[in-house]
Amino acid sequence: MGRFKRLRSIAVAAAAGALAACGGSSASDTETTLDRFDGKSSLDASFITYPPSMIVDANTGAYSGIMYEVAEKIAEKLNLELEVGEETNWGNMIQHVDGGRAELIISGIWPSAARAKSASFSDAVYYSPVYAYVRADDTRFDGDLGAANDPSVTIATLDGELSAIVAASDFPSAGTESLPSGQDVSQLMLQLTSNKADVTFVEPAIANAYAASNPETIKRVAGVDPVRVFPNTFLMRKGDTALAETVNVAIAELINSGEVDQVLNKYDPDGDQFLRVSKPYADKAE
Questions:
Q1: Distance of alpha carbon 139 from alpha carbon 259, whole angstroms
Q2: DSSP H or E run through 107
Q3: Rounded to whole angstroms, how far apart are CA atoms 231 and 76?
Q4: In 7, 103, 147, 150, which residue has its Cα 20 to 30 A from 59's Cα atom?
Q5: pTM for this one?
Q6: Cβ-based burial of 138 (10 A; exposed 0-12, middle 13-18, buried ≥19)
Q7: Parallel, antiparallel, or unpaired: how do β-strands 126-135 and 228-237 relate?
Q8: How many CB atoms lie within 10 A of CB 151?
Q9: What does the pLDDT look like over 48-89, one tens digit per residue?
């Protein structure tokens, strides 16, 4: 696939399409945007630690990351303060917003049909390609990832996270070595290097960070396409259309102004880890 640069074929969703992400019906469906934000001073968020989407400094507790910084900009557009509360995890995040403990989950959440039954998602802020990774000396799946769909192969997964979804849908014959949902995604790499699993599926950003600290231990499976390309979105309570509508307009504004790209360039300066959402007029303007 080569190095990823700007993905010009993906257009920014129009603000009029924002409601498409928010199916279902509830009392809040008839709530106007004015009602939704009347008297509010803050945009209340929770998070899942998932660098570089959402980072918590181990020493100071300070927040940073792509989605955190974009959420700050969204709150600023709305003249609100971003209030970051407690941490949640992949398995509990939907129940977290359902229970009113937060309005947004500000890590990069990848939508799925199963999740969309119970939650709403914003428009894409950026896209993540997800590749298969193995130990550095393993060539079994080069050029043919389908060979991993075999009972002799073990896939490292994290409960409720993308790796588990891909393993179940694409490689049902393979075994799994599953970690609980509260574990850091980087632990999937450790499952490989400790010989507990043969293959796993993560973003380049996760694998590259692990490889930087553990050189020559893992590698991307050669000659195969990404197993998925997912939009990174904010998760909200199902049916909160006023919030989703407003957040989506803010995202479109931030993309078109170049502010999202400025944030992405801080964390992905070479443009080879994430796919940018292009401006609809970008090719003509150049």
A1: 41
A2: strand 104-109
A3: 23
A4: 103
A5: 0.75
A6: middle
A7: antiparallel
A8: 8
A9: 998 899 999 999 999 999 999 999 999 999 999 999 999 999
